[in-house]
Amino acid sequence: MGGGTDVDEAIQWMINRSGGGDFVVIRATGSAGYNDYIKGLGVVNSVETLLIDSKEKANLKEAADKIKNAEALFIAGGDQNNYVQFWTDTEVAKAIQYLIDTKKVPIGGTSAGCAVLSGYIFDAKNGSVVSEEALTNPYNPLVSLSKSFIKIPTLQNVIADQHYSQRTRQGRHIAFLARLIKDFNMPSPLGIGVDEKTAVAIDESGATKIFGSGSAHFLRTNKTPEQCEANKTLTWNREGKAVSTSIKIGSAIGTEGINILQNSATGADQYWYALDGMFKIN
Asked: 177: helix, coil or strand?
């Protein structure tokens, strides 16, 4: 899961876990710029980029077969709403799920590509949203959330956010988590916020490593918001401990992070909360 902009070490981690096989990049906009970049980071059999920018293309057998034959898959950045609109309930989505469930190959993504890997997505259906807007009204139409069109077992309880510190997205992330508890009947969702030039690698056991020069933020929730209603400011206080947050700084060799399948709020570096629509740190 990449927070935006490339992280060489994370791609190398994927190459190593793929065994140097066929590396496929998928996107809905842009060009094949990743091809030479990935080839320069390690030994791979091949690298190919597929531009899948419509429902029709996402149902092509040729596209699905190329994805199924991959030993590693990377979803480029862009607009996650394109991915949701173009790829949901298509042969491409089935092919990605085949890689997850059957071949069990490494799958990664940056920015929008990272967003769609988590079990729940801020899908940007109505455009982006800043923290102030989400905290002032967590039911602002811009706060559009949905279940992902693919299912990665370790990420089913997760909503990710990217460009994290650079765009001060902590407040909106809390609003997303509050909405998951309120509207999706999730008792304790987990948030993963990833800075730019940073990536979180997650293995099948839930263990994490953080690569790059920024930080990864792991947000654990264990109590419901006091006020999460339409046209009202978000209050999620719980004595200043609404969300326990662990912050891990990346490195070239990969910093050990938390295990996201072990739902414990102990060992938090900070506690985050919202009070009358204002983001607070305890």
From this structure: helix
